[in-house]
Amino acid sequence: MGTLWPAISVTQRLHSKNPYKGEVVMSETILKVQGVSKVFSSKKVNIRAVNNVSFNVSKGETIAIVGESGCGKTTLGHCIVRATDVTAGSVIYVGENGREYDLHKLDKRTMRSIRKDLQMIFQDPYSSLDPRMTVFDIISEPLRANYRLPKKEVEERVKDAAARVGLNPSYLKRYPHAFSGGQRQRIGIARTLVLYPRIIVCDEPVSALDVSVQAQVVNLLKDLQKELDLTYIFISHDLSVVEYISDKVGVMYLGKMVEFAPTGELFKSPRHPYTEALLSAVPIADPTVAGDRIPLEGEIPDPSNPPAGCYFHTRCRYCTDKCRTEEVELQEASPGHFVACHRAEELKLKGIG
Amino acid sequence: MMGLAKHGDLNLTARELKRLEKERLKQEKYFTASQWRLMWRKLLRHRLAVISFVLIALLYTGALFAGFIAPYGLEDYSGTYSNAPPSKIHFFHEGEFVGPFVYPYEIAYNEFWEKVFVENTAQPYPIKLFVKGSPYKLFGVFKSDVHLFGVDNANLPPGKDEVRVMLFGADQLGRDLFSRILIGSQVSLTVPLLGTFISFVLAVVIGGVSGYFGGLIDTVIQRIIEMISSFPTLPLWMALSAAIPPGITVTRVYILITIIMSLISWPGLARTVRSRFLSLREEDFVLAARIAGVSNFKIIIKHLVPGFMSYLIVDLTLGIPGMILGETSMSFLGLGMRPPATSWGVLLQECQSVHNIANHPWKLIPVLFVGTAVLAFNFLGDGLRDAADPYK
C-alpha cells in the first residue's frame, strides 16, 4: 500500500529534504525504467515507439529526455505514468515506504493508491484544461477523484496549490478562457501539485509558451522541486532549457536511448554522434562565435521499418560498415555515462561549453 | 513632477475610477462565464438567429394556446362558407366608425354559373375579444369555450347561418383555415420535437457505445447506420406507414408517426455523437483526468458529455426542419395523420388538385407556415452552430 494522505504533509516533507542536494553521492532510487518497449500495431504495420529503454531515476533529481519529434519521448512519458500500457519491460516505482511497485503489473486498487504519486504536466496548456470547468473544479478534480475530503479541506488544498504556482486565489472562479498560455500552464501545474505527487512527468511543459514566459515557468518548476522535493522526468526538445533544469539527460532516437549521462558531461563531451549533432544546433548568444552546425541529412527513418544495424547509421557522418549491419546496445562508457555507439571509444566528439 | 501628476490623476478620477471598476466587473463576468453563458452571448449577436428564435417561440405559443386563439374548433363546418375566401375586415359602416367588423357572406352566381361570395352590407357583425364559441380543452385539461376573438352574433336574425370571421378563408367544408392551421400546428410542430428527442436518446446511446467501445461493436454499428441511411426515405415511409393499421385512434397514429420519423433520423445523429466521442477521448484534459485517477464513468459524465452537448444541440436544431418537412409530406401523401385529425400536411391535401389552387389560392397558406418554421429552425441552428464552440 502506498502512504495514505496525510501521513506526510508538505511542510514535513520540506524538513525531511536533504539540504545538501547535488553534493550527495549516494542517492535513493525512486524510479527504475527497465527495458520498456511500446509497440503500436495496426493491421499491417508495427511501430516501435519506444524500444527497450532503461534508466534509473534518483529521488529529487531531474532527468531530461530529449530527441526530435517522433522519437518516442512522449510515449515513454506516458508509459511511466501508465497512461498507456507497455508492450514489454517494467516501470518500477519505489514508494515512500521503500516498497517497490511494478506499475504495469499492479491491480486496480493498488494502482489507485499509487496514481497520485506519479503525475504529469502537459505540453499544450490549451487542450489540457477542460474549457467547461472552472479553475477551481480543474484543480480540485484529482482531489475529489482520490479522496473523500470535507469541502473546506478541498478548498484549502486547492488554494494552497494555486498560491504555490503564483495564481491569485480570486481567479479560481474563472474559466480557463480568461487566462494566457503561461497562466494556464500554472493551472496545469497546480492540478498536479494538489495531490502531493513525488514524481512529475513534464511533457514539454514550456514548448508551447512564449520565450519570456518559458523562463518563468521553468523557474517555477525549479522552485517547486526544491520546496516539495519533487522528482522530474522532463521531456523536451529545447536543449537550452534542458541544460538549465536537468541533472541528467537521456537522448532518444527512433525509440531507442542512444546516450544517457549527467547534464554537464553530456553537453561538454557527448559520445554519440547524434548528440553531437543536436548540440551543434543549439544557438549561441554571441555573434563573434562562428557556430559550425552539423546538418543531419535526410529524414528520420520510418519507425515502422527501422534501418538495420545502428538506427542512426543512415544519417551518421562517422558511419562504418559495422554500423550498417550490427545492432548496438547502450553501454556504460565511463561511470554514469551510457552510450549506444560502436565507435564511442575512438571518436572525439565536440560538445559545447 | 511625476509625483504631482500621479497625485493629480488619483484625484481627478473619482468618476473615472467608477468607470474602470465597472469595466473590470464586466470583464470579470466574462472570465467567470460558463460555456452556456458564452454560447448565449454569441448567439445573441447573431441577429437572424434571434429573430428566428422569436418566430419559433411565437409558433409554439400558437400551438400551445391553439384552442383559445383559434376562433373556431377543428370540426366547425358551415355549408354557407364552403370554399369562402378570407373575410374582409371593415372598420367603417356607412361612413361611420364602429370598430372592426365583418359583413356576412351571401352566395351568388356569376355569368359562368360559378359560385361567388358577395358581402351583404346591410348590417355589421362586430369582431369582439373573448367571445364564447365551441368548447375546447386548454393543454388537454382545462375546459373552456372562451375564444380570443370571434364574431358577435347577437344581432343575427333567427334561422340564419351564423356569421364567421375567417382570416385565411375556408376549406371545402366551410371550416376556418386559420383555426385549422393553429390546431394542426399542434401536430406539425410537436412531432418533430418528440421525434428528435427519441432519436437523440437513440443516437446518444448507440453512438456513445460505438465511440466508446470501438472495435468490432463500432464496425457493426457503423455498417448498420450506413444501411439505414442509404435506404430511400419515401419508400421506407410508405412501408412503415402501411404497417399502421387503419381505424386506430388519433393519438396512436401520432405516436407511431413520431416513432417512424425518429427511426429514420437517428443514424446521422449517432454518427455525430460517435465522432465527437472519438475526438474528445483523445483530448489532453481527458488524459489528465485519467492520470489523476478519475473513473471512466465520471470522465464521460463530466468531460465528454458536456463537450459534445453543444454540438448535439446544433445537430438537433438542424434536424427539426427535416422532420417538419417529413411529417408534412407524409401527411400530404396520406401516409401520416388522417382526417379528422389534422396537421399542416393534411391541410395541404386539398391543394392536390389544380382546380383548388387556381380558384382558392388561400388554401396554400399552410405552406407559408411550413416554410417559416423550417427556415426559422435552420437559421437558429446556424446561429447555434456559430456559437457552439465559444472557445475558438
Write up this protein:
The complex is a heterodimer of chains A (about 350) and B (about 400). Chain A has about 350 residues and is an alpha/beta fold. Chain A has 2 domains: about 30-115 and about 200-210 and about 225-355, P-loop containing nucleotide triphosphate hydrolases (Rossmann fold, 3-Layer(aba) Sandwich); about 130-195, no CATH class. Chain A has helices spanning about 10-15, 75-80, 110-115, 135-145, 150-165, 180-195, 210-230, 240-245, 265-270, 275-280, 320-325, and strands spanning about 30-40, 45-60, 60-65, 90-95, 100, 120, 200-205, 230-235, 250-255, 255-260, 330-335, 335-340. In chain A, strand 4 (about 90-95) and strand 5 form a beta hairpin. In chain A, helix 4 crosses helix 5, helix 4 (about 135-145) runs parallel beside helix 6 and helix 6 (about 180-195) packs parallel to helix 7 (about 210-230). The longest helix of chain A has 18 residues, at about 210-230. In chain A, about 40% of the residues are buried. Chain B has about 400 residues and is of the alpha+beta class. Chain B has 2 domains: about 80-175, no CATH class; about 190-390, MetI-like fold, CATH 1.10.3720. Chain B is built from 15 helices and 6 strands. Chain B has helices spanning about 1-10, 15-30, 35-45, 45-65, 65-70, 175-190, 190-215, 215-230, 235-240, 250-280, 285-290, 295-330, 345-350, 355-360, 365-390, and strands at about 90-95, 95-100, 105-110, 115-120, 125-140, 140-150. The longest helix of chain B is centred in the last third of the chain and has 37 residues, at about 295-330. Chain B is flat and about 85 Å long. Mean pLDDT of chain B is about 85; it is low at about 1-5. The interface of A and B includes residues 119, 132, 173, 175 and 178 of A.
